[in-house]
Batch of 4 targets.
Target 1
Amino acid sequence: MTPLRTLIFAMPLLALAIPALAQEPARATISIERSLSIVSVRPIQLSPEQRVATLSLSADIQPNAPAVIRVTGDPGRVYRIRVPRTLTSSEGVALVENLQIWSENTGDVSVTRTSHMDLDGRDMLRVSGRLRPANGASETVAALPLSIDYE
Amino acid sequence: MKRIALLLGLAAALSFSDALADASVTRSPATAPTLGTTIRGTSATTFSISTAGAVTRTSGNAIRLTSGSVTTPTLSINCGLLNLSGLCALRYIRVTITPVTGSGAATISRLRVGGLSGATYRTGSAPGEAASLSFDLNPIGLLSTATLKLGMDVVLSANAASGVYSFDYIVTVQLVT
């Protein structure tokens, strides 16, 4: 048998003997983030006599004092503050209007309603507004819904 | 004459090694599964992804922000059109799937396959779930493409730093006698 003939006969056996290999690297992903949290440090106090919302703080709780809210999340992340511009009663009467929001990290965010966490993932918000008491009510208690989301 | 035969033999062997690589495997989509945004947990969390794409948290306290299913990878295996030289169409195909271990916050702890079409398992049934899989398919013929779905368990480490993590795996297809 000539070498050429031997080779021709050996080719199918060669095909069986040599393992063919194909590889495909593949990838999956997951995005991890730190949860956002909101803690109310001080409640909001609004006085009907005060016509201008104050965002300043004092050691005592004044009749007209902003809510102090601590938020935490991913360091450096931008977040959006969701709070209604006007808080209305069930009768549709405005109770709190002209809400003002001040962020320790960003400053006045009353209009943009967007702030960011510091390098430790914290921010402090002050929220105030102008109280418009309902007719006949001497003391008004209302809840101000506030939430935050990563931008 | 002998020299010519040897040269021809060398050329044939080289062309053979090329032809033998014609059994191919592809996966679609390019990145899958994509679990999406997840709030990290204080304990290690396992998300189990079925071959159909349903995601279930089986342990831990991380929170996936969506409860929706994910697109699982579809693996396609074929011999190439009318590829006769490697006898690919007539040979068993060994599929091996292994996670790539790394230092990331997310790792694959278990793999599973299902939804096989265009071929049959050599053993008659799908392999059980395992940290890595190796199983044989019966010869798929000249014109067929075998497809199967891949599911997995993903472990997310406790208190993982924020960011996007990828976790890789390798699919190997080999012709066996």
Note: The radius of gyration of chain B is 20 Å.
Target 2
Amino acid sequence: MKALCWNGTNRLSVEQVADPSILNPKDAIVRVKLSTACGSDLHLLNGFISTMEKGDIIGHEFMGEIIDVGPDVKRLRRGDRVVVVSVIACGSCNYCETDQWSLCDNTNPNAWMLEKTFGHSGAGIFGYSHGFGGYAGCHAEYVRVPFADNGCFVIPDSIPDEKALFVSDAMPTGFMAADLCNIQPDDTVAVWGCGAVGQMAIRAAYLLGAKRVIAIDRIKERLVMAKENSGAWHVFNYDAGDVYEGLQEMTGGRGPDACIDVVGMEAHSNGIDYLYDKSKQFARMENDRPAVLRQMIRSCRKGGTLSVIGVYSGFVDKFPMGPLMNKALQLRTGQMHGQKYAPRLLEYVANGKLDLSDTITHRVSLDEAPEAYQNFKTKNDGCIRPVFRV
Amino acid sequence: MNDNMRETPSPELKRLLYSVGGIALTAYAFRRRGVVGIACGAAGAHFLRQGFGQIRQGNPQKRTESPAIAASPAKVVGDSTITVKGNPHEIYAFWRNVKNAPHFVSFVTSVREMSPNVSLWKFQYGNRPALEVISEITQDTPGELIGWNLVGSPLVKGEGIVRFGPASLNGYTEVRLEQWVTPVLPVLRSISSMLLNRHVAQNLRNFKQLFETGEIATTRGQPSGKRSVFVETAHKIMAPLNREPARQKSVGASA
């Protein structure tokens, strides 16, 4: 089959690889119909996620059709049209039973790698480094899905493929980002990053009762989408001014009640701190650039909530612990618990309350994926989300 | 400061001094070579062992209080604890059934019961010749612990104990596994300790996965693009550590 392989920093290629097969009794094989690039893939592309190996198949957001199931798969049948959650979870451990699926104890064959740095290992993730299990990713014609009964969700006939696709990752990620904020009716929420997950976070914040949502980015098309499609109350281009000043002005000097970081470890900012972080990250003296974290801590109202859903990989420098503590901020974070949110999100999509397919800006074949990723990375041609037809 | 404190450097300081001295001597040995180099290298290795040895062998506070270990410093210890869903009795029963062992103990391909307390274990690493070891159960308290000795092979001498106790989480059991082996060559002590700790922790993870889900997560046999020579070689070496795919019905308690 054809698959998109990582061959080193900024090197992707479409290669012929063997077809996957059932390895464990709870596996299923999915024929991929649509897959999409996620912002977190750019960290792989840029070489900032360790434990990648030449030849790894990347991609973790996809939908398709079940073509084979293992003997212990109970809920699925061949021919089912499914969307597959990017996090692999067993459904049996304490974390899965308490709806914290991305913390699953039992799905990372390389748990020892994460235990070395994180202390404990979370769940495996499709196509996202050997530290997260080394599972083959979804930018391929076929994917093996372990614990398929938990990860595959049958798509109702009324939902077209493109609308269902984002239930795999972008929608639950954005939704969980808003959910972590414990939004109250009069709340103002600020969202850093207006890619597909950021757009979803804005929409979810409104759905969960926020009064106002402020969107922050520097890419014009994304800010326009945040305003027009997602309904942001105000959009803020951080190239045009200081984020802290802007947010204080918009909130009467109080600051947003909740701040959402959808950007993660490769944040941009203006000023000397960006050069400092960029240099340290380039020299591998820190893993992540915490520009958004610093801005959120400074800008958030006293006693407010910080929701961090953008991916961080290791250690950050110059983390403002003093303001975090003295302002009594609550920091909530985590990889998304897709299995918890997917049924609810499919319902929202089916009844028209949520739709993220408007973030698809490019539809290309898998053969064109390397160029599409380059476009996605540089944000050329108004690229917000490329979708690969497999 | 009293006299005792002045006379006796702290263990941390001792380890630091040994480590720094060991690194310096080893580095010098590589540059100097010859007889002096060999002597410096040997001294450096001794210093490094003193400096890092204790760290590599794990936290002494976690260790078992087994008198056998205290009396046998040549042995290396591997230990780890994990929390498994289920009560101590059912988890004990699953572990006690030695036929389950090949499903979760790395490198074990088969186990044959010779009597209620004695069994023949076949170990195999990749395509290397198999090694047969007799395991004799020396302690057996249902729902609490199982202890064993490995005998019958000059290459594998060891013993182990697994304890089962209620976890703080209701409905869960703490499983603590301790294993000791005597390395064939004493100089391999540090690396044996590291590998044994990894082996013990992985076996516990395998056990938990098998018991809770009925299968052990694996990626062995999945497709990939063209690997580099380095990665290909590393995968061949590490392959036996990644579980062989089950391709069969689940075997765990949850199945």
Note: The CA atoms of residues 159 and 350 of chain A lie 6 Å apart.
Target 3
Amino acid sequence: MKIGVFICHCGENIGRTVDCPRVSKACAWLPGVEVSVDYKYMCSDPGQNMIKKEIIDKKLDAIVVGSCSPHMHEKTFRKAAVAAGINPFLVEITNLREHCSWVHDDIEAATEKAIELVRMSVEKVKRNQPLTTIEVPVTKRTLVIGGGIAGIQAALDVANAGYEVVLVEKEPSIGGHMSQLSETFPTLDCSQCILTPRMVEVYQHPKIKLMTYSEVEKVEGFIGNFTVTIRKKARHINEDKCTGCGECITKCPIKKKAYNSFEENLAYRPAVYVPFPQAVPNIPVIDKEVCTYYKNGKCSMCVKVCGREAIDFGQEDKIVSEEVGAIIMATGYKLYNIDKKPDDSIYKGYGEYGYGKYKDVIDGLQFERIASASGPTEGEFKRPSDGKEPKKIVFIQCVGSRDESKGFSYCSKICCMYTAKHAMLYKHKVHDGEAYVFYMDIRSGGKMYDEFVRRAIEEDGVKYIRGRVSKITEENGKYIVKGEDTLAGMPITIDADMVVLATAMIAQPDASVLAQTVGIPYDKHGFFNEAHPKLRPIESTTGGVFLAGACQSPKDIPESVAMASAAAAKAMVLFGSDKLEREPVVAKVNAELCAGCFLCKKVCPYGAVEVRELITRDGVVIREIAYVNEGLCQGCGTCTASCPSKSVELAGFNNEEIFAQIAAL
Amino acid sequence: MSSHNHNHVHTIADDIKDKTFQDVSLCYQCGKCSAGCPIRYYMDIAPNKVVRLIQLGFYEEALKSTTPWLCAGCMTCSSRCPQEFDLAKFMDAVRETALEKGVEIKNKDIIKFHEAFLNQIKHFGRAYEVGLVAEYKLKTMHLFDDVDSSPGMLLKGKLKVLPHNIKDKESVRKIFKKTAKK
Amino acid sequence: MEAILKVGYFPGCSQTGTAREYDISLRKVIEKLGASFDEVKDWSCCGATSAHVTNHKLASALAMRNVMLAEQQGIEDMVAPCAACYNRLVSSQYELKKHPEVKLEVESILETKFQKDVKVMNLIELFTKIGTEKISENRKHELKDLKVACYYGCLLVRPAEITKFDDAEQPTSMEKLVELTGAKTVDWNSKVECCGAAHSIARRDIVVELSKKIIDDAKRHGANLMVVACPMCHTNLDMRQTIMKRVYPEYKEFPVLYLTELLGLALGMDEKELGIDLHTVKFNYNELAAEKAAV
């Protein structure tokens, strides 16, 4: 076997600490090495051309490149090798930068080490097998989990490109939190006015299969080939027959037993309901918990008034299965609740703000509903406790955010902006009202964002007080807010009519369960993890699953929309061809040696090991053995390390190759 | 306040860190402590400002302030601080450091009270209230405060005229000796 | 013959002095409930008030001396009726656990080695240990004319991760005990506000303002009695009302009882046996009930 060694100086990066010409000369003497050269920038065009020339001229079988980390240029050098006619997996990269020159000072010692490292790679490459990329088929359909603005945007982008989308939303209607908002910053657009056209577009789109009031129960398969099990919860309304006329809702006698979660519990809803008038789809749901029929069978008012016989009390949940090639997570967020949950060590609640016992101490979404023209007060500012117009409102930022003791260490990003917005909306409607904002910092880093906050202060007369609030107590219907202005160095006490808390943006309570169902990692707060925080913020570490919106980290609407379109683009990259290429660095089980202990199956983090029967040609079953699904295997090597009989080997890093490297030391 | 700097000089901030096991850099000056402090109105410098002075290295101003001496040790600040900075313990450390460094303290009455209190413990093992009050009055010359309540208290048996001695007074005196400042 | 539950007892300096009635009523009440005290022999000052503000090593050593004595006496859990003593004894043990180098230093000062923790209870935890059903079983009078503001003060509930007792902002454990006597409780805003603490001697003006604020809040919420579980708080809230009257001529007196005195009344004892007549502000249940009826 003829091997070529190419040592790169990487400019000063390697050359400063490792004497590259000397390494190259020493390696020329290694057994099997036909040619050994060094060059300043091996990854450059002249460098690559040098490699190609040497391969062709000297008829090399394999090459070793001493350079930076394989993460950087393995692909580059493999391409060069292919161009010159050798298999890309007969290329070994020796890391002389991160593993050598960047971590040592002593030139002599570093150079000796470099020679050792290259010797190891030469011994390995002698045992390398030529490998071919694995091809898997692709189902050109996308699953989008979550029907908020991010999910809607992603679904539309994929569908408009001509691919089918399955959009699953757990609430009865799509729209998410954006549909609850009154107006959006920094333009003060009416939120539903800009959102509902998109919602209708989703509903009417021929390529989008919309499943509301549904949840994903199981995800099997791998990138390009997922099988998803979805539970369509029973609405007890026949969707095909219902026209959305709303008669059942109007006539339902149970009017005050259940709170409307869309209205953030500021209003009631009947037992049969749609969450809001512009709901998509406009098909109601019967709440079994409060409906009289399910208690004693005595009421069927809705059946009586329904002209289409659409009520179906006995309807069951339906389980459906969908085949998709890509999954986009768009499950959004929830707001931190300041109530105390007795057995919860994470959500401690805020006792100094009343643990939620004060009716007029509300959070941001409740304020949105009060401000909204379609809300429980029809857009008029009325206190939840007595319906009076508040003349003094105090807004408190960072409740639960940047707070290690009772909340979360992170900043929720959007609160500075929406608090300014809230204060402005209030001042626009109540001209003689006073608005105070207690803040620690103002984080307004978007386009026209800082100008928006200045507008609140300079044009609308909102008073900003730099400091936190220590305690809120109630005295005769007024809320005594005790805070401090650290800029003036003075305590500030305000007797407010209403207090709005900008509570932390947290992950959905079942986010971790869903993440485990789909098979993606999540952080300690429940936010889904991106593959790389800087350069790969849209992909999760699991192939084929992409992230969009606040489920990955707190963010505002433009960022969520941008991320959703990016996720859609990523999904469509998979659909660009009929087959997906995968790196052949996967594990393979030697069927003869495998005893069927399945330790590998237990340790595999990707669920890539299957149980197969080992059968003779006559169909007699000898025993069960392990089999690695090439599509799922990520080549981590955990199974290889765990196998007691060494029956599993990793292609490209098999035992022979690794032991040769060690022996060469 | 880097502690891996080879040329590091031991500062007052380090003194305080040694006593409290927490670094003042934890405090991000949100002011919640000052907002909830019941004694705030009587203090010359807000509690969070005392921390700020130590953070910036203005040690003398911090140590001379009346604020730590007026601190009642109610722990409202410590229990509400979002960074879990124990401000009450920090104030204790500032008081102790001010005494160690011999800084001129304005709250002379309060110092004398503490001296009188600790003297009682040193000699009798327990706080002997008549002795404490007597010593405090002599030190401060506020001879006629509490005069209205004292006869009543004596009659009710609430003020023991003679101190109660513990048996092993020596062990308590030893504690004082071993922890005395050099 | 019912078994007597024995509990360790760390009185603290004020129990023999200004808080004499606290000690009297406490001992009488636990006797009626079938428990007895094993007082820490030759206990000394716990180091509250002045030690921790001037010398943190002295403060640790003074507190741990008593823990050492209790451990040597075989006491596993003990009650410290003064909230400051309770807080010092619990905090010092917590500090020694968290910082082993401090533990070594204190052991060297006291010339001992700490083997076991001593669980220190505050007054309210004591009754939970004895068993609240015993209060209901032995109740002789229903104190239904009382509307009580339960005052916890600072050191029973803070710092929350050290005392691990009730909620630091909206506690309710004292209310539960008070309601066993038949009295009603009020929800009010100053349960855990500071009374001024040890400024009682050197800065009485602060104490007068802070304590008056608390009493005013209790009155505003419809209470006719305040109940406390700390002798420092009681001094400030009761004895200092003399000065409040002087500074604020229109100020009206407001009775403040120890929790043990209230329980004692419910268990059938009278004001004199419980030492309630030692208070500055007079309290007599029958008179208060008569007043209420007259209104």
Note: The mean pLDDT of chain A is 94.
Target 4
Amino acid sequence: MNPVVELRGIVKRFPGVVALDRVDVDLRPCEVLGLIGQNGSGKSTLVKAIAGVQEPDEGEIRVRGVRQRLASPQMAASLGIGMVHQEQSLIGSLTVAENIYLDKPSDSYRFGWYRWRRLFDAARRQLDKIELDIEPDALVSTLTFAQRQMVELAKVLAVEELVEGQIVILFDEPTSVLGRSDIEALFRQIRRIGSRASVVFISHRMDEVLEISDRVYVLSDGEKVAERNRGATDPDELYKLMVGRQRAPDDARQSRLKGSEPQLLEMRGIVVPGHVHGVDLTVGVGEIVALIGVQASGAEELCRGLFGLNERMAGEISFAGHPAHIKGPTAAIALGIGYLPAERKVEGMVRGQTIAENIALTFGLDFGRAGTIIDRGKERREARLWADRLKLKATGIDERIERLSGGNQQKVVLAKWLMGRNLKLLILDHPTRGLDPGARGDVFRAIRELAASGLAILFIGDTLDEVLSLADALHVMRDGRITQSFPDLAAHRPHEEEIVRAMV
Amino acid sequence: MHAPVEKIVAPSGQWPGGAAEAATKIGAMRVPKNLANWAPMAALALLAAGFSLASSQFHTAANLQAILEASAVPLIIAVGITFVILQGSIDLSIEGVTAIAGIGLSLLAANSSSSLEFGWWGVTGVLVGGLLFGLANGALHHLLRMPSLIVTLSTWFIGLGVAALLFPSRQPQVLDQRLLDLSILKIAGISPIVYVSAAVLTVGVVLQGMTRFGRLSYAIGEDERLVRMSGIAMGRHKVAANAISGFTAALAGVFLTCQSGVGNPTAGQGFLFPAISAAVIGGTLLSGARGGVLQTALGVFILQVLENGMVLVGANPLSQQIVEGATITIAVAIGGYPLIRKLRVVK
């Protein structure tokens, strides 16, 4: 059978990375195609290219044998391609029926007037198709998250009225926020539509992909490294393929004498409803502890909670030997905790201000007179000191921060925390995200030096290579729990496959 | 953990056939589920009950009539601005439009200053002028991507300035008896202005519930990016909201001139704040997508009952503003409370 969608030599570049490197994909009629790979392997970029969300830089896309340019979601929809988004794309203040037909031509309104009955009838038919017991006139904001996911599915399935023949439905991590019973319901729907739709399914959970897919592609670093049919593979092989050519360099750290330093942070039974379900974690003075996990593993929420950014976090925290109640960032900073956010541009730096102003943002007043009056001179001397120590590349500390490269911006954010005289623990949330290899090396070096001088570091890594070369201890998280711990990486160095297995 | 999807039936009912019935239902006036939904209704009832106890005059037919009469002009303005607010924008230029419309009508209709005598055509001209003014607001906001706050702040002052320029050396007296009759005549004991305001409210409810414009106003207020991503040409809807707001402001100007019988460039003063407060008190959020025309009407009545009742019980007129301000604060606190919780739970 001829493929419904063919991709040939698809290339997509982002600044600093090649997200997709000459990828070929065939999507056959009536099949469920699974895509697996680590974070950043290019899965999402690939489906976005098919959905018309992001046009590839090179390569060609054929739909039902005809070469097409998919420049917008509307163009894709007109060819019968729809995407169920990871973040939902429904409007809560409208009814289910309106949402289903929001992005489609419909005879339910004429000259701007709604014909509600017609609209509801049409929506009812769409909902019936997947046997969904939701009233078309219900407001979306009154639905549960799982119900909305189903409405999203109905919305996408309605594209079949726009085209003849097979339709294509793309799922980008549809299960990451669903419970088990909801996932089963979703899978039933996917199997049900199998007779008239081809499905591409992305999930970070290996067992789910194997359960639902007829065929899987394995992606690694933007390349398609393998293709397997269901039954012709097993998880072990796929884990190996996912790791791919990615190998950690051999500059791992010296073994630290475990137990020689006192524990700085002890967390017991940490819970963040919906994200973290009971985590125990300790970080010693001068220790670098890494967390790694796929999306929605809970690592981010754990770190944000520790910095007081999630009021619903519960559990016991002891910091520097005393029980700590961290109610907000101010309390965290007072204890000596700093947090380098993943969203650097939004949460980490103040655009439009200079390097010096950004560095002095949090602790500038500590260098002022009597803690109330700013001492510019002292503040700037301190800022310059840290800029030099971190080898910041800029024309001077009065340069505006947005003119710097990503790596240098990150150094500024790092310097902001290092100015704190009381700093004991630094939380790094994806510290190397979006950095080129050179900048990454600089940031690594800085982190190592800081740890050597006694600062405790808790960081969330992006890649295996990163955590293995930087951390003393590693905890792998999945679905809000620590699934495996490697307390001393230098003494016992785990296989990459072992880590990946605990992640997915 | 979520319950299985199949077992959950979303709250709903059969859709009634009649347009009017449907319209009231669509107006987001569904079964009240949280505090914010029924709080304005309760507040109105509470105020009415309180004033009835405090003053024997409050509950008289004459006083209820007076409240309706006083509510008419604020209601017209507030219904118009509700669409702008639903979309998450704001229209500050209302007082400017009202001023131009008021002074314009007093010069276009038979009057003591100019020799013009356009009568109803004068009214039509002024209303079209208000519509165009709003259109310009919307176009500036949408095409130049300027924040509506800034656009309408500047056109507010432009409107006031134009009105002042139009003002001749002597205050124009309206001599067209048909216009003056609008506030003097009574139909079933109520002046035509009240009927017009009721008509405006009805049109507002229909627009909100029965048209693509109305429904998309909610969508735009909630997530403009998503609406654009859905391939919807939404510029026209944003411009339309501003045009409606301009039109209703001009209509208010017409009635203010008819009521006072003279052209006055400051006639619209003091109508912007109550209009916005009415929307907020009724439960329409300034951030858009929540509330609606009926909620706004409720807010208008709450403010009017408050004002009326405080006069009746002999409260210091100066303290009225304090009470009004406090009411708004409380309304926003109550209206926003469930939302705070929601932001924490909903993704």
Note: The mean pLDDT of chain B is 81.
